[in-house]
Write a structure and sequence with these properties.
The chain is an alpha/beta fold. 38% of the residues lie in helices and 12% in strands. A five-stranded mixed beta sheet has the order 2-1-3-4-5, covered by helices on one side. Strands 6-7 form a two-stranded antiparallel sheet. It is elongated, with a radius of gyration of 19 Å. InterPro entries: DHS-like_NAD/FAD-binding_dom (IPR029035), NAD-dep_sirtuin_deacylases (IPR050134), Sirtuin (IPR003000), Ssirtuin_cat_dom (IPR026590).
Length: 217
């Protein structure tokens, strides 16, 4: 589920919780919806979004939540339709239906005692760097090759193409927004799909590095 949506033009914000997620199963609306007014089409898209994931088995990484009510959908559609430009901000909750756990929910990564290594700790010792890359090497395939965009990523990409979404900012490093078709994504924490040499600054593809690590080990 998309974590939040905020307007930039008027500094007004509308926070979107997991109960009103932006994912939807069928991006192409029905003929009747497509021929309707922009506001009713938007309401149709958001209503479809709110039902995504319900009635089917959800991944264990998805926190329990209730679908959005009709009133919440109407409020969100009205908010989106009334703004000239929208800024969409997403966090870990957007990728939970892609089998990537969030951090702070009851079943999130922190609940198991996981502590991510900070950049400062990574730089301190060679032992820390070896530990980081050993863990990264093992987890890469599940993270990068066994995940795919979910309804939320596709919905946001569709809203970017069809409505007044001006910019997309994400805290996520999985690059699933781009795979879903989103453009001009600002990645606040970078991406796990690129790596940079600390000595010379050269940037290379993480997937190629994975193959090099496999050959060397």
């Amino acid at each position: 589920a998309a974590k939040a949506m905020a307007a930039t033009a008027s500094s007004t914000s509308f926070h979107l919780s997991a109960r009103a997620n932006l994912g939807f199963r069928r991006l192409k609306t029905s003929t009747s919806a497509a021929e309707a007014s922009p506001s009713s089409k938007l309401t149709h898209v958001l209503a479809t979004a709110s039902r995504a994931g319900y009635g089917r088995r959800r991944p264990s990484t998805v926190p329990d939540c209730e679908p959005a009510t009709a009133e919440e959908i109407a409020s969100l559609a009205s908010f989106i339709g009334s703004k000239e430009r929208l800024l969409v901000i997403t966090g870990a909750g957007c990728s939970t239906e892609s089998n990537i756990p969030d951090y702070r929910s009851p079943t999130g990564a922190y609940s198991s005692g996981f502590k991510p290594m900070t950049h400062q700790d990574f730089l301190k010792t060679e032992a820390n760097q070896r530990r980081y890359w050993a863990r990264s090497f093992v987890g890469w395939r599940r993270f990068a090759e066994q995940t795919a965009p979910n309804d939320a990523h596709r919905a946001i990409a569709e809203l970017q193409r069809e409505s007044n979404v001006w910019r997309l900012i994400t805290q996520n490093v999985d690059r699933l927004h781009q795979v879903a078709g989103a453009a001009d994504v600002l990645e606040l924490h970078g991406s796990t799909h690129d790596v940079q040499c600390l000595a010379c600054g050269a940037v290379s593809c993480r997937r190629r590095l994975q193959r090099r690590l496999a050959d060397l080990n």
